């Protein structure tokens, strides 16, 4: 059984036992959270799609770790104008262990 969830403005396809990295969630390591924004639930060939959410569906997950992704380099250059700008960014994430998908 799998589900499509929405968190942090993005959508993720998850199943029980998987680990995923999502936008940072304000929760402690080891804490169990419930994600109730479920857009679709599938089981084999059967698929239940919500409008926009599936009523009564939820996903249980445990917070494994917090961290930062690799650095993304931003480099801007205007040729022949003496303009050069460098910047970097590291996006924070929360790693979740999916424990159950409830339809």
TrEMBL record:
GO terms for cellular component: cytoplasm; ribonucleoprotein complex; ribosome. Keywords: Ribonucleoprotein, Ribosomal protein, RNA-binding, rRNA-binding. GO terms for biological process: translation. It holds the Pfam family Ribosomal_L21p. One of its GO terms (molecular function) is rRNA binding. It comes from the Bacteria. Belongs to the bacterial ribosomal protein bL21 family. Part of the 50S ribosomal subunit. Contacts protein L20. This is Large ribosomal subunit protein bL21.
């Amino acid at each position: 059984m799998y589900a499509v969830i929405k968190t942090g403005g993005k959508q993720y396809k998850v199943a029980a036992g998987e680990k995923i990295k999502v936008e940072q969630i304000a929760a402690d390591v080891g804490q169990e959270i419930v994600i109730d924004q479920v857009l679709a639930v599938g089981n084999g060939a059967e698929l239940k799609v919500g409008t926009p959410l599936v009523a009564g569906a939820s996903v249980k997950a445990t917070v494994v770790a917090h961290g930062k992704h690799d650095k993304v380099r931003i480099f801007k250059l205007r040729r022949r104008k003496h303009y050069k700008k460098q910047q970097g960014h590291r996006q924070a994430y929360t790693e979740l262990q999916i424990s159950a998908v409830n339809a």
